Amino acid sequence: MASINWHLGPRNRAYVDKIVDRAWELCIKHDYPVGEKINLQMDLTACHNHGCRLNLAKLAKAPDFDFLHDILGIGRHINRQTGALEDCFLPRCARA
């Protein structure tokens, strides 16, 4: 089994950190169980590097509804062994 690449460049790492902080705040605001921040970081990184390239700048600025659709959908549909998205889920902020 291939291992997941956890590397992100400095700009993408900054976007992921910003996205994770925003997701954390929104989930708390809406009383949605979110788990640990590190899990959100790992899901986004694995998805971006293996499952589906994300437009991280677009995701960071997305309206709350679209933002949560992508964040929660990635968390629900990611295969944590491979980083691939399953069940035909496609984030709205996927790169074209």
Summarize the structure.
The chain has 96 residues and is an all-alpha fold. It has helices at 10-29, 37-51, 56-61, 64-77. Helix 1 crosses helix 2 (37-51).
Describe this structure as you would to a colleague.
This protein is mainly alpha-helical and 96 residues long. The chain has one domain. The chain is 57% helix and 0% strand. The chain contains 4 helices and no strands. Helix 1 (10-29) packs across helix 2 (37-51). It is globular, with a radius of gyration of 12 Å.
Features:
4 helices, 96 residues, mainly alpha
Q: Strand fraction band?
A: under 5%
- Residues in helix, %: 55-70%
What is the CA-CA span between the terminal residues? 28 Å
The SSE order reads HHHH
Give the topology, please:
Layout: H1 10-29, H2 37-51, H3 56-61, H4 64-77
